[in-house]
């Protein structure tokens, strides 16, 4: 995240003042300014950044959806965003929030929120693409109404693993299984993308329930973006230089972070209670055998330990 090069001069600054200045800077860094981090990319005025960069809204009506993307490309990071999803009858709508690189052998890390009839649960759909290959869906219901308030959706992406979390509870871990021949996203920088669009041919109960345009415009909101991440620019990572500022070089340890036993317990709770689809248990879909990362004995062993 662009650190505001603070002009705290080297002349005698009282330690207390310095502490308060630094505290202010870190709060500002957390709150972010969505204008600095994102560009609205489509939707002809349906996407807006409001309140001096504190809030971003996407909307969808019968003629168009809308979307935005990050100005930065990232190669690894711990990326948080708060979302408040389309409320009421959101059936047929999809709010996608994901990281993706470019091209046919792209990598991608997806959150997609599939709307529903009023009172019926959203589906949080997740997927991971590596070198153009996805088909790694896991889906969840949520333990709260994602339309009533903002909730934090996070991606921890480091060379060993990708962890999807909701309000700090990990729901999915995709481990690096290169040792058994499964490509892992680690060479292609990705941008953050988000969009709100109509997908009523598949989104709600498999396409049975269509978007009711009487409820348009549909709106989803975003706030409090925070990227503790390695940004990529002109072929160089902000983390590769030992001399870069400590904010971008893993001062928080995310570059090697893994799930401790408390987090593993939380993930097991989320998966036991809220997972509604897991490609790794869909034997019918993979008659030639489950994908390698699902049957990696090392990983299953680790999963059994959960
Ligand atoms: C919508 O509600 C139905 C009925 O509760 C549920 O089976 C389904 O998972 C929900 N979500 C979507 C996106 O279809
Ligand atoms: C982070 O920065 C510190 C001090 O600048 C340096 O000692 C350390 O090696 C860096 N770590 C990484 C992972 O680059
Ligand atoms: C199994 O996991 C351990 C610890 O995560 C790792 O050190 C080891 O290389 C793995 N073995 C294989 C065959 O993947």
Automatic annotation (TrEMBL):
Processing after translation: Contains at least one intrachain disulfide bond essential for its enzymatic activity.
GO cellular component: apoplast
TM region(s), chain numbering: none
Enzyme Commission number(s): 2.4.1.207
Keyword terms of this UniProt record: Apoplast, Cell wall, Cell wall biogenesis/degradation, Disulfide bond, Glycoprotein, Glycosidase, Hydrolase, Secreted, Signal, Transferase
Function, in words: Catalyzes xyloglucan endohydrolysis (XEH) and/or endotransglycosylation (XET). Cleaves and religates xyloglucan polymers, an essential constituent of the primary cell wall, and thereby participates in cell wall construction of growing tissues.
InterPro entries, per database record: Beta-glucanase-like (IPR000757), Beta-glucanase/XTH (IPR044791), ConA-like_dom_sf (IPR013320), GH16_AS (IPR008263), XET_C (IPR010713), XTH (IPR016455)
Family, per entry: Belongs to the glycosyl hydrolase 16 family.
Highest classification ranks of the organism: Eukaryota, Viridiplantae, Streptophyta, Embryophyta, Tracheophyta
Subcellular location: Secreted, Cell wall; Secreted, Extracellular space, Apoplast
Domain spans labelled GH16: 28-222
GO molecular function: hydrolase activity, hydrolyzing O-glycosyl compounds; xyloglucan:xyloglucosyl transferase activity
Catalytic residues (positions): 108 (nucleophile), 112 (proton donor)
Main location: secreted
EC top class named in words: transferase
N-terminal signal peptide: 1-31
Protein name per the record: Xyloglucan endotransglucosylase/hydrolase
Biological processes annotated in GO: cell wall biogenesis; cell wall organization; xyloglucan metabolic process
Lineage: superkingdom: Eukaryota
Entry coiled-coil feature ranges: none
Glycosylation sites: 116
């Amino acid at each position: 995240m662009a650190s505001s090069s603070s002009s705290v001069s080297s002349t005698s600054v009282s330690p207390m003042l310095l502490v308060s200045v630094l505290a202010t800077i870190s709060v500002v860094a957390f709150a972010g300014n969505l204008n600095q981090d994102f560009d609205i990319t489509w939707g002809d005025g349906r996407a807006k950044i409001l309140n001096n960069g504190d809030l971003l809204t996407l909307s969808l009506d019968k003629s168009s959806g809308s979307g935005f993307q990050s100005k930065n490309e990232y190669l690894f990071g711990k990326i948080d965003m708060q979302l408040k999803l389309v409320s009421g009858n959101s059936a047929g709508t999809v709010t996608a929030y994901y990281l993706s690189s470019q091209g046919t052998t792209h990598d991608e890390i997806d959150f997609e929120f599939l709307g529903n009839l009023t009172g019926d649960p959203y589906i949080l759909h997740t997927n991971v693409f590596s070198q153009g290959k996805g088909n790694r869906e896991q889906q969840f219901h949520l333990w709260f109404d994602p339309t009533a308030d903002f909730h934090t959706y996070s991606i921890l992406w480091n060379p060993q693993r990708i962890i999807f979390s909701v309000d700090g509870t990990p729901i999915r871990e995709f481990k690096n299984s290169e040792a058994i021949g499964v490509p892992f996203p680690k060479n292609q920088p990705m941008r953050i993308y988000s969009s709100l669009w109509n997908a009523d041919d598949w989104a709600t109960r498999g396409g049975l329930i269509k978007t009711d345009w009487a409820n348009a415009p549909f709106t989803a909101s975003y706030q409090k973006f925070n990227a503790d991440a390695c940004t990529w620019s002109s072929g160089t990572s902000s983390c590769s230089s030992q001399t870069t500022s400590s904010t971008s070089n893993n001062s928080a340890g995310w570059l090697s972070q893994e799930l401790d036993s408390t987090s593993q317990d939380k993930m097991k709770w989320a998966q036991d209670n809220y997972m509604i689809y897991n490609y790794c248990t869909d034997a019918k879909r993979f008659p030639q055998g489950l994908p390698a990362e699902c049957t990696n004995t090392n990983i299953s062993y680790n999963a059994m330990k959960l």
